Protein: Arginine/ornithine transport system substrate-binding protein
Amino acid sequence: MRQATCCLLFTTVLIGGIAYADSKPIRIGVDVPYAPYQYKEPDGTITGFEVELVNAACEHMERECEWVEQGWDGIIPGLMARKYDLIASAMNITEERSRQVSFSAPYYQIPSVWVKNISNEYNLEDDLAGVAIGVQQATIQDEYVTTYYPDADIRRYGDSGTVVTDMHAERLDLVFTAYSLAQETMLQDERFIQTGDLITGPESIYGPGIGAAFRPRDEALIEAFNKAMQEIKEDGTFDNIYNDYFKDQ
Structure:
């Protein structure tokens, strides 16, 4: 079992209208790695908590899933350009993103965490002026740090792996990232520890949780996806996948 924490969101979805029916595979945009939510096995297979959830939803829709890799910066433009049919990539439902895409009902929440070198001391209630903080660009962590620590030396990276690499190379003072990602990549190293509490708000930044993103006109697919997600929660599949990855309920 992977040592990680995630908060489940059990949202009741009312389904009406005509079910989404199509024989073509559903193409899903994803930015990897972002363990444990999405990452690659040694043979190149894309897997992870959210990947397994969406694969299970596809089974309930009686559709084949095809995962399409896309860097985070271009993941919404790729959806709008029809490179794939939906995004399932640990994407928080936010007001800004909702101006471009439509979201499914939220199906889980990811707390954020501050990580520092064990030998350093920082007061998160200060302005952290000049402190080198690593974040993945265009994420809620980026928005949070930009909002609350504008005087810090904010270093934005195109992918989470490079953030982790620079922290291990001691080119950063702090990293602000998803808690589960930190557990997988930094907090198992005795040089690094969590500082401060887990962060899940404010809602103006974090939104109600993680959801899949769709083109706004694809209402039938959104409805079918929500119905399938509700079904895998009701039949125990969601809990089984969750328990494979996370120790805390």
